[in-house]
Amino acid sequence: MESFEYVVVGAGLSGAATAWQLAARGHEVGLLERSTPANDAGSSHGSARIFRYAYPDAFYTGLVLEAKTGWDELARLSGKQLITPTGAVDYGTVRQPERLAAALAQHGIEHELLTAKEAQNRWPQIAFDTEVLWHPGAGVIDAHESVAAMVDQAVAHGASLHTNWTLTSIVAGNSSYVLTSEDGRSLHAANVIVAAGGWLPQLLGSLSLPSAFLANMPALEVRQEQAYHFPYADPASRDESQWPTFIHKREGWQAYGLPGGRDAGFRGQKVAEYNGGKILPSAADQDGLIDSANRRRVIEYVEKYLPGLIPEPYAETTCLFTNTPTENFILDRAAGITILSPCSGHGAKFAPLIGQLAADLATGTGTVPQQFRLVAQAAAGAH
Predict the structure, then answer these.
(1) Where exactly are the structural domains of the chain?
(2) Under CATH, domain 3-45+145-219+325-381 is a member of which superfamily?
């Protein structure tokens, strides 16, 4: 039976980042993936995820700054452009652009507050309804290429990648854990890091975690999100650099959009309703079907607020969000098992940093922000 010092379960963005960090530090690492890295059934596929610094909480803005160092290092090591610069605009009555500007100012990040008219003059393809925050340091992450780059780095440092390895249980032994797959294969690990994304809820009961630890676990909500690609109305707009990413948040509705890149054949924008998909028991229950009411809402949104697009989607897709009640990430450890859930629809941009934090926690060489520990999550849920 194969044996490893550390086994990472899940080769999405956070798992691949963790395996990279552990292997680069000289540890013996196994990386298990139920399918293939960044596969379409998970949360880390495709070419279009938003990278941004704008958060109402300066804590997260600071974490993005830390994560960017890791992104720059990964780009250098891989020789790939993993983040395409586009800048970002944030607006809407609930988005509170002035609050976002304050967080950016606290960290010295370049930004501008514009009136709706000023923003309209700069980006006539978007209809703004409030003051607008612009920060040029934002961009679009190629999630698939980023996962591939991190897996490549992990393997280059000696990690062993196991694909089509679906975990069903972890059983604690005297000095190690036995991990068993769906088809009966097994291996030993002294330490385990579980980064299973939307599959985490169904796995929690079979991971040999202490009951006191599990008692503090917040309810995880897995959603099958839906996104649509809309063609540019003006052929000149095919230059995606003319389109910033955007988050538009009004009472009862939040939309986001970004250049679709390779996923959209470089000819359209990816637009979606945030947390507009159906709730699933776990990722295993996704069906990949688009909800017609959701499609209609997004088309109506494009008709009203995105005059630079033709309101007829030429492609559509589903993906997974795994949300915590507070949208804070989970990053905690019990005995030799570390649990990651850095999702909630906004985790992609932090991937290199999450890998560093998870490696620190699993090896006992560092700490993680208190907000990510289960005790803090339970306390937040009590109020």
Answers:
(1) 3-45+145-219+325-381, 49-141+221-323
(2) FAD/NAD(P)-binding domain (3.50.50.60)
> Do 3-45+145-219+325-381 and 49-141+221-323 fold alike per CATH?
no
Q: N- to C-terminal Cα distance for the chain?
A: 47
Radius of gyration of the chain (CA): 21
Which residue from 114, 143, 130 is spatially nearest to 49, judged by alpha carbons?
143
- Arithmetic mean of pLDDT, 41-61: 94
Q: Are strands 315-323 and 221-231 parallel, antiparallel or unpaired?
A: antiparallel
Residue by residue, DSSP assigns 94-108 as TT-HHHHHHHHHHTT
Asked whether the beta carbons of 149 and 38 are under 8 A apart, the reply is: no
Chain segment 306-324, per-residue pLDDT in tens: 999 999 999 999 999 999 9
How many Cβ atoms are within 10 Å of 117's Cβ, its own excluded? 10
104's torsion region: left (phi>0), alpha (psi -120 to 50) or beta?
Answer: alpha
- Helix orientation angle between 351-363 and 13-24, rounded to the nearest 10 degrees: 50
Q: If 0-12 CB within 10 Å is exposed, 13-18 middle and 19+ buried, where does residue 287 land?
A: exposed
Query: What would the pLDDT profile of 369-381 be if each residue is shown by its tens digit?
Result: 999 999 998 888 7
Alpha helices in 113-249 (DSSP H): 116-122, 143-156, 200-203, 211-215
Three-class DSSP labels, 164-178: CCCEEEEEECCCCEE
The domain defined by 49-141+221-323 folds into D-Amino Acid Oxidase; Chain A, domain 2 (3.30.9)
- Put simply, whether the predicted model's pTM sits higher than 0.90 gets the answer yes
Helices (H), the chain: 13-24, 58-78, 97-106, 116-122, 143-156, 200-203, 211-215, 292-305, 351-363, 374-381
